[in-house]
Amino acid sequence: MLETRIRRPSLLDRIVTPQQAASLIKDGMIIGMSGFTRAGDAKAVPIAMAERAKTDPFRITLITGASLGHDIDRMLTETHVLARRIPFQSDATLRAAINRGEVMFIDQHLSETVEHLRSNQLGPIDYAVIEAAAITEDGGIVPSTSIGNSASFAILAKKIIVEINLSQPAELEGLHDIYIPTKRPSRVPIPVVSCESRVGFPYVPIDPEKIAAIVVTDEKDSFSTVEAADADTTAIAGHLIRFLEQEVAKGRLDLTLQPLQAGIGTIANSVLTGLAQGPFHHLRMYSEVLQDSTFDLFDAGKLTFASGSSITLSAACGERVFGRFDKYKDKLVLRPQEISNHPEVIRRLGVIGINTALEVDIYGNVNSTHVNGTHMMNGIGGSGDFARNAYLSIFVSKSVAKGGRLSSVVPMVPHVDHTEHDVDIIVTENGLADLRELAPRERAREIIAHCAHPDFRERLADYFERACARGGQTPHLLEEAFSWHERSRQTGTMRLA
What we know:
- The protein is of the alpha/beta class.
- The strands form seven sheets. Strands 1, 2, 3, 4, 5, 6, 7 and 8 form an eight-stranded mixed sheet that branches.
- The chain is globular.
């Protein structure tokens, strides 16, 4: 089996243990590691790094595609390996260390990281640690269930450690489309003109002499943690379906819509799955993460093709998909995240972007990342790449959180990830606010009337009317704007006593 997975014979003598590979990582290094939303992450070497750090302390800057699985971020945090972390994470232990100031976290748009590496604003990368399904005869690296930033990490790194994961299906080979933009300012347009476009290599082309070590593993990806749809997410999907049907009736869309993108998480996944109940057909996706909803739409006969950067599935869906991968393979492509999230391509294709908000304010500014404006949750991820450039920029959220104690619609968000200029549609279980071509005062009335929870709607309307009396293009009462958040900080609720 190894000879079919490592098809360049001269590399077979570079197989080492995880501990031997981890010993190559030194204090102060910058490490690029594969992994995008718990898929295709390096599994054995980072665990060996954490074990080594218990007796041989060292600290690194860790750059990934997005979040890692297998509690890797937790283990590296607990053993104090992480000095800096870029550009996204979703681990509770790491999150706490970030908010204590122990780990410096750089929250970046997912399309930007390798641009910074390529232009020497970040880096250089000392070692790339990349999970692969195979190595070709020429030494090319065949990624596994994600590409993320792995291709550029491998190309730009001084040396590479490859994890050959025997649990990843050999059928993944041929799924990937590795296209790397040329350097600026002489860069040519990216030739992706449809979701189905294939414009690069099915492997990462590298000099095989850069491969310093190969580790053989047999560990499956971590499963996604998306939950089943509930009454609120079903209602959100219903509002969105009716809105899209109206857009079709007005001649702005047809029933094939535009290519779809959905952010990670339960709400966005449930909303996308809900589209199977609508009249739409021959749908396409141009997204980052292909979740359960992607394959639910395939199985419902609604989706014809999906382009992404990773495949992240629940246990049940993963068994279904990888047990019959031949059923889906010719309908899929995985790309580097700088291509899946590239503004040029997103705008060219006219993507409909559906992302999740922590909270929105009455004018349509969206906070995706910071609780009470200060404490990081996960990061902006790719939502900004899509929001700024999408044909329709849609944000979804339940109208309340923490058992109804917190309103997700507030007078002013204390941290802005997506300004009102980048937000077209806001949807909660209560309704949908279409903000296109509306002035701030008009936007506020739409959001309060259609998206706010009834328990908070009257107070939002009162705040808005009193702010309007004071005047301004975007009226606010600055002395009260964050009073809701201050109340929740002190009492645990935004509700009045």
